[in-house]
Specification:
globular; alpha/beta; 12 helices; eight-stranded parallel barrel; TIM Barrel; 10 strands
Length: 300
Amino acid sequence: MASNKVIINDVGPRDGLQNQPKILDLQQRLALILALEAAKVPEIEVGAFVSPKAVPAMAGTADLFPLLPKGSAVYSGLIPNMKGFELASKANVPLMSLVVAASNTMNEKNIKMKTEQSVDVCREVLTLAKSKGANVQAYVATAWECPFEGAIKADEVYRVTEQLIDAGATGIVIADTIGAANPAEVASLMEGLTSRFDSNILSCHFHDTRAMGLANVYAALESGIRKFDASIAGLGGCPFAPGASGNVATEDVVMMLEQMGYDTGIDIPLLLKASDLAIELTGTATGGNAKNWMEKHYNK
């Protein structure tokens, strides 16, 4: 029987901020992370170990990790390659995330490699990570649709997922990078994946481009998935993926799960405060679709 506990990984401080017109300084980024931590969000993506020239919003990510409270949330950082792994290792990052797109063109546009080359890079990092006892998961991006190639075959997602698990990835995040999936497609792919792999190592990452993010979370939930990425106040978008709007908002996902009887362990009034902070800091975030309703019902 599937668990009643659902883990939320808030990607706002990384995926949410990387594409904002306003670049936040380290203290502002830290304030947002601490607000999420205070709300008892169990996992938080702190930043990315990427070139500050390519993604200026992620400059100084290594400096954030020593400032984070110990023993509360699981903090993660995105690593694009071996250099990223080395930098994250020096910063003692508890969980690192690699990314491979399921489509060749997306990989070529993003990291100038074909999918097979990208998997090979991940394999090298994962082999080293295993020898050092490091915890590294992997994202399979554009798992339903690519902005350049269109629909992605499920077999391609199964193949890349299997290669990454065999290489030593501790978890696999199936990502709808541009928010192109619908609930029927999500159910189909995730049921295929859970029939082939342990559902405990699978999670999902949805964008709300077409207002289907929450419906897609529900479809994956029904398929046995119990871990989801979400972004505070609906922040997000990928600078390398045309058409990618914000991630599904953390407050919307948590509200739906809690009302359905699932346990996220998250303090909703404090989560709404974190959402207010994200809106204040960025000037662009709007908050989740249910935010106004939630403020009336949870802040009494």
